[in-house]
Amino acid sequence: MTNHPAARADALVLFGATGDLAYKKIFPALHAMARRGHLDAPVIAVGRAGWSVDQLRARVQDSIAHHGGVDEAAFGRLAPLLRYVDGDYRQREVFVALRRDLGSAERPVHYLAIPPSMFATVVEGLARAGCTRDARVVLEKPFGRDLASAQALNRTLHSAFDESAVFRIDHYLGKETVQNLVYFRFANTFLEPVWNRHYIRSVQITMAEEFGVAGRGRFYEEAGAIRDVIQNHLLQVISFLAMEPPTSTYPESIRDEQVKVFRMIRPLAPADLVRGQFRGYRAEAGVAADSTVETFAAVRLSIDSWRWEGVPFFIRAGKCLKATATEAVVDFKRPPLAPSFPQHSNYFRFRLGPDMAIAVGARIKEPGEGWSGHTVELSLVKQPRGDEMDAYERLLGDAMEGDATLFARQDAVEAAWAVVDPVLKNPTPVHEYEPGTWGPPAADQLTASVGGWVCPGAQPCA
What does the pLDDT read at residue 249? Predict the structure, then answer.
């Protein structure tokens, strides 16, 4: 192993080039990078389809056509960069051929868009062929299935790569909306005096999807809502809302503050979790007839820090719910000596998907002689999905540059697993819920002390 140099990569190796992730996300991201002039290194695709390089180019062009359309000039720059190595990852000859195709490249990035079960095989093959010196490796979640498997995966990666050369992609961190949340928190002075237990009553995050498992029943049987989005995406959002201000004097400061938050979150107990499964899930292809996998999960978290002691953080995520939206709502305490004011007086609302919005809830008086009022929402920003940089384009570019800020670090991954590990080992009952609702009624008990769940748009859930 050698220390990873902070220099731009001079080759990108894509394992799993014939798979869905490459087709849906990675090829369009490479096209966008070429369009912006951000890609000039060879792209070596590795797969088992028996393709020629011309077939690879045709597959890439088809992918781009189905995901935003082909820019002929950009594709003209991308196509000559494409190369293809075919074969079984378990065979030494594949890695010998890869080493040959890398030629004079000294700082390759190896992207493992492959099942986690193949990570060790590929990492060992790269090491034996001399492809890991001054190289970086990029891998997709899940980073293990629990704390023990995450630690085992990290040992495998570190057998060939320094931690500074390991880039764990959580595409949620590449989203413009999530980055804007962090920027808004620390770029505005007026927030800091009230961003604490003295003023904030609770924090809620909802990640709702109207659709079901969309033909991915076999995958969901292995994952479930906790592993799929809570342990990674939504705990990351919690860390951005709860962390202390990072310093700009060293590049790891944001990731350091995230890890501190994860380590201060109490491990989940059964009383902190409600799991649900939508009616009809067991009829999905690839799903066991007696499945107890959750398609909905709601959790109550406590952060043992000076800033957040006593403030509950709530997360819920589910399939076949009443809407498709991801929002975080920071609810402020009611003003003192004001019993006539509603439970939810002031709040900040962060819409993280599918569009972006930041809004403030405030109370104003009703016209007339009475002393009653209503809540109005002041919109700070509201924008539909536009031409902003896609998460995969941003993250691929950062990996090529060696900028790990938006990637998950080993200690953060393991600390996040430690939060959910107790309830993975001792799962709670699964409550069936009707599609098109907000999940099982049992989840309402978690937020009863703060007036119930707040639904997208900062509306009471009905």
Answer: 66
- Cα separation, 321 vs 439, in Å, equals 6
Confidence band (pLDDT; 50, 70, 90) for 406? confident
CATH number for the domain that contains residue 128: 3.40.50.720
Active site residue 233: yes
Residue-range definition of the domain harbouring residue 384:
173-389+407-460
Give the separation between CA 413 and CA 425, rounded to whole angstroms: 18
Read off the pLDDT of each residue in 207-216 and give the average, rounded to a whole number. 89
Cα distance between residue 231 and residue 217, in whole Å: 20
Of the residues 4, 31, 110, 233, which is catalytic? 233
Tell whether 203 and 324 lie within a shared domain: yes
Q: Does one domain contain both 180 and 260?
A: yes
Task: Supply the mean pLDDT for the chain.
Answer: 90
Instruction: For tokens 């050369």, name the residue.
Output: 165
Distance CA(424)–CA(225), nearest Å, equals: 11
**Does the residue 145 lie in any domain?**
no
Give me the mean pLDDT over the 132-147 stretch.
Answer: 91
CA distance 138 to 89: 17
For residue 164, pLDDT over 90 is answered with yes
Residue 401 lies in a domain: no
User: Could you tell me if residue 395 is inside a domain?
Assistant: no
Model pTM score: 0.90
Q: How far apart are CA 320 and CA 436, in angstroms?
A: 6
Quote the strand ranges of 37-173, DSSP E: 43-47, 82-86, 108-112, 136-140, 166-169
DSSP 3-state of 181: helix
Structure tokens at 84: 């293809």
Q: Are residues 306 and 262 in the same domain?
A: yes
